[in-house]
Amino acid sequence: MKEGSILTENVLTVENLSIDYESNRGPVHALDSVSIGIQPRSLTAIVGESGCGKTSLGLGVIGLLPMPPVKNITGKVWYKKVNLLDLDKEEIRRYRGTEIAMIFQEPITSLNPVYKVGQQIEEAIAIRDSRATHKNTDANDRRSEIIESLNRVRIPDAENVANRYPFELSGGMRQRIMIAMALAQKPSLLIADEPTTALDVTTQAQVLKLMRNLMNEVNTSILLITHDLAVASQVADKVAVMYGGQIVEEAEVNELFSAPSHPYTQGLLACIPTGSKAKARLKPIQGNVLDLKQTVNYCKFAPRCPHVMDKCWESKPDLRTVEGEHKAACYLNE
Amino acid sequence: MSENETRRFLKLLFTSNEAKLGLVIVLVFLATALLVAIAGKSILPYNPIQQNVGPVLAAPSLQHLFGTDNLGRDVFSRIVFATPNALIVSVTVIASAFVVGIFLGCVAGFWSGILDEILMRTTDVIFAVPALILAMSIAVILGPGLINMMYALMIIWWPPYARLARGEALRVSQRNFIEVAKTSGIKTLTILRRHIIPNILSPLLAYATLDIGTVVVVYAGLSYLGLSVQPPTPDWGGMVSSYQDYLVSAPWLPLFPAAIIAAVVIGFSLLGNGLRDAIESRNIS
Amino acid sequence: MNFITFILRRLGLAIFVLLGVTLITFTLSHLVSNNPLVAWLGRAASNPQLAALYIQKYHLDSPLYVQFGYYVSGLLHGDLGFSVFKGEPVREALMQTLPFTLQIAFFAILLTLGIGIPLGVLSARYNHTAIDYGITGFYLAGIASPYFLLALFLLVILTYTLHLLPSGGALSPGVPPPIPITNFQLIDSLIEGRWSTFLDGLVHLVMPSLALALGIFGYITRVLRASILDVLHANYIRTARAKGVDENTLFFKHALRNASIPVVTLASIVVTWLVTGTLFVEAIFAYPGVGQYAVQALSNLDYPSLMAITLAFAVIIVLSNLAADILYAVVDPEIRLQ
Question: Quick check: ipTM above 0.95?
Answer without folding.
Answer: no
